[in-house]
Each structure stands twice: as structure tokens, then as C-alpha cells.
Amino acid sequence: MEPTEYMPLLFSGIAFVAFCLFFMGIMNAFRTRAERYRMIEKIKQENPYRFPAMNGAGGNGFKGDSSFFSFFQSFGKKITPSTPEEYTRMKLRFFRAGIRNPNAPSVLWGVKGFLMIAFAVGFLMFRISLMKPLNFQYSLTGMVLLAVLGFYLPDLWLHFRTVKRKRIIFEGFPDALDLLVICVEAGLGLDAALARVGEEMKLSNSALSDEFAFLNLEIRAGKKREEALRNLALRTDIDDVQNLATLLIQTDRFGTSVARALRVFSDTFRTKRYQRAEEMAAKLPVKMVFPVTVFIFPSLFVVIAGPAAIRVYQTFLQ
């Protein structure tokens, strides 16, 4: 092939990369703006028990009244599933990701529809203007694949955000459990202890603090403690939090000592953490086999056997 035949393909690649960088720049700008708004709202809070998600943008990752997201919201309302089961499942996904804005499902479906159309139309424009003419089958296949990619990209982002938040909550749960044990043994009631732990964890682990604050708000709003604890376990989707919620529910139901139960659970949880660390340490040599074999052994072989091989080669040449 002549060099001129590579030019359309090169231009199309450059145009696609420029489009991706432009889109990523726009999303980064809006994410920075939303983070700024979130910090401003957090600074303005005067009541320590006020939950950030109740004032518009806290913990949502975007402002519900933003003109940028209002477009996706209006577009997504037309394609959002309206069945109660699907809506409940979507709300639970957003709760686990730390997004409690009521318009979040509509915005998500709006972004999914927009990206699906934008990727397909962008591929068609690049094919017409820059690339060599393709047959109908290849063009249709490319448009369908890019449309599917654009449709599932927001779901992928939501999944990674959920995984990251679960990891943050999991890392901060041992400190929260120790604080809860100390507060209960100091004489505080369970509700006051949960509220105190949420307040103290605000700086070190904001995600876990928000969950405890939301739990406290549900209890103060009139929900039963058992139902509020089950909702906490459902929102976090972490086994350790579910075990704590089950322990507190059973303690409240049978009337046993909360302080003693929490102390036993804390000791058991500390032992489990130690065993989990030992398990990770035991898996480490097996995980190191591949990088050692691929990256370290060849380098050592070259350094050790290289001079000897050169000397042997020079000897045979003489």
C-alpha cells in the first residue's frame, strides 16, 4: 500500500482520540465543578446531624439543578424504565454508589441514550468524511458495537464508583466499630452512639459517616431500628456491616447487653481481620510467581550468563 492510503486511517484515529480527549475534558470540568459545590455545601453545614444528601448535591457527584444535567434528565425521563421493581433496583444501585439524588436514574438513562447515539453518529461521520468507503455490513457492525459501548459505559462508571465506595467503607469499618464499642461502654445509648460515631468519622471516612448519619435520620424519622439497620446493611452491601446489623437486631430483640455483644463482636472481628491478613500473606508467593518468572529471571539470566556467553563466543571465533 502507498503511504497516501494510510492518511485517511491516520486522520480518523487522530480525530477519534481528539473527540475522546474533548469529551473527557468536559466531564472532568463538570466533575471539578460538582466537587467544588459539594465542598461549599459541606462547609456551610451548621448542624452536625444534617445529612449531606438532603441539600441537593452532597454525595451525589452532580447538582440536580445543573443545566448540563437537566438536559440528560429531560431526555432520560422518556426512556427510563417505569416498572416499580426496576426503579427500586436502580435506586439501590445509586444508594450503594453514594448517589441519593432522586433524579439520578433519569440522568443515567439520559447519558446512556446520548452516548449510544453520539458514538454511532460519530462513527458514521468519521466513516463518511475520513475513512475509506466500507461496505454496509462493516459499517452497521461498527455502529452497533459503538452504540452498545456508549450504552454500557455509564453502568461501568457506576460499578467502579460502587466498588471504590465499598472499599472505603470496608477500610473504615474497624475504626467505626471500635468507636461504637467505646461509646456504648461509656454509657451512651445505641442511637446516640451511632450518631456520635457518624459525627466522629466525618473527616476520616466520609462515606461511612454518611451511612451512619442516614441511619440516624431514619430512626429519628420514625422507622423501627430493626428496619433502619437492615436498610444500612442493604445500602452498604458489605458482609461485616451486615453481621453488625444482624447482631444489633438480635440484641435489641432478645434484650441482651449491647456493650457485651459489641465487645465480643469486636474481638471476633479483630481475629477475623488477623486471619484475613495471614491469608493474603500466604497468597503473596503464588501471586509473585508470574512477575518473577517473566520480568526478574530473564534479567538475572542476562546479567549472570551474558558475559560467559560472550566469552565462549569469542573463544570459538579464535
Written overview of the protein:
The chain has 318 residues and is an all-alpha fold. It folds into three domains: 3-164, no CATH class; 168-286; 291-317, no CATH class. Helices cover 79% and strands 0% of the residues. It is flat and about 85 Å long. The two termini are 47 Å apart.
Q: What coarse outline follows from CA principal-axis ratios?
A: flat
Taking the alpha carbons of the first and last residues, their distance comes to 47 Å
Number of helices: 11
Q: Percent of residues in helical segments? A: over 70%
Structural domain count? 3
Which stretches are low in confidence, meaning pLDDT under 50 for 5 or more residues running? Answer: 46-61
What's the quick description here?
The chain is flat, with a radius of gyration of 28 Å.
